[in-house]
Amino acid sequence: MTKEKNIKQKQFYGRRTGRPLRKAQKDALKTLLPALDIPESTLENAAALVPSSLFADTPNNIWMEIGFGDGIHLKGIMNQNPDTAFIGVEPFVNGMASFLKSLDKTDEGRVRVYMDDAMQVVRSLSDESLERLYILNPDPWHKTRHHKRRIVNPNNLGHFARVLKPGAQMVLSTDVPYLAEWMLTHTINHPAFTWTAGSANDWKTPPKNWITTTYETKGAKGADRMCYLIFEKILANRKK
Ligand SMILES: C[S@@+](CC[C@H](N)C(=O)[O-])C[C@H]1O[C@@H](n2cnc3c(N)ncnc32)[C@H](O)[C@@H]1O
């Protein structure tokens, strides 16, 4: 079986646990994770999971955030978009616990989470099922021999293109200049994406109503080097 054919193959290289969890985080994991987790059984077949089926009221508008860290951004966009449903993926247990702890009771019906490799979820999602995808400050994997671990890569871009609806946005950010260049080059070269920036201002300044992520806040020194790369999914035959 080739790697690509193995839908359940996990490709996560980061750390899964950090400091000991506080009681409230442990409680959130214990009570909310079983309720909001995307079941492994729905991730067994490529392109078979219709994400609206994960929610009681079959929403039309579903956004996904990959590698949400402690979930400050995901919770923020949930607050800004009360009629949208969300899928959040984060393998780091402490991050997942913090996000779950931040949820209000009313949020629970419109978010589903997965605490492992996001590509397993992406490969399972049905075609053109997401309205938006965020990948904010993905791990840069500095060493050349580790570049293949970068989550924005030509192979994964094919999966992102498949699951996004035409016109949907893919929002990437980083403060690492050569990762910005890598993500930009690979995404521009992909036939399904077009870069929305009209001027440098568009990628150097945060988009309107931007929720600053924890990584972005902590890297205060790097903050003025942040790049916000917004792409739109197009039909392949529309790109020049
Ligand atoms: C540098 S942190 C950024 C966290 C957050 N987006 C922020 O900006 O504060 C990168 C995050 O991506 C997550 N991550 C790495 N590989 C992943 C994968 N294959 N699937 C989902 N998340 C992943 C890591 O666990 C980590 O939390």
One letter per element, helices H and strands E, the order comes to: HEHEHEHEHEHEHHE
Low-confidence stretches: none
Q: Main sheet?
A: 7 strands, mixed
Mean pLDDT, rounded to whole units? 92
Say which molecules are bound, naming each kind only once: S-adenosylmethionine
DSSP helix fraction: 25-40%
Cα separation of the termini: 36 Å
Give me the CATH superfamily.
Vaccinia Virus protein VP39
Q: Could you please say which CATH topology applies here?
A: Rossmann fold
Rg calc = 17 Å
In total, the number of domains comes to: 1
Q: Tell me the number of helical segments per DSSP (H or I, 4 or more residues long).
A: 8
Indicate the overall shape. Answer: globular
| Strand fraction | 15-25%
Structural class assignment: alpha/beta
Placed side by side, the strands forming the largest sheet appear as: 3-2-1-4-5-7-6
Oligomer: single chain
CATH class: Alpha Beta
Count of strand segments:
7
State the CATH architecture.
Answer: 3-Layer(aba) Sandwich
Draw up the topology in text.
Blueprint: H1 23-36, E1 62-66, H2 72-80, E2 85-89, H3 93-102, E3 111-114, H4 118-124, E4 130-136, H5 154-163, E5 164-174, H6 177-189, E6 193-195, H7 200-204, H8 214-218, E7 227-233
Parallel strand pairs: 1-2, 1-4, 2-3, 4-5
Antiparallel strand pairs: 5-7, 6-7
Bound molecules: S-adenosylmethionine.
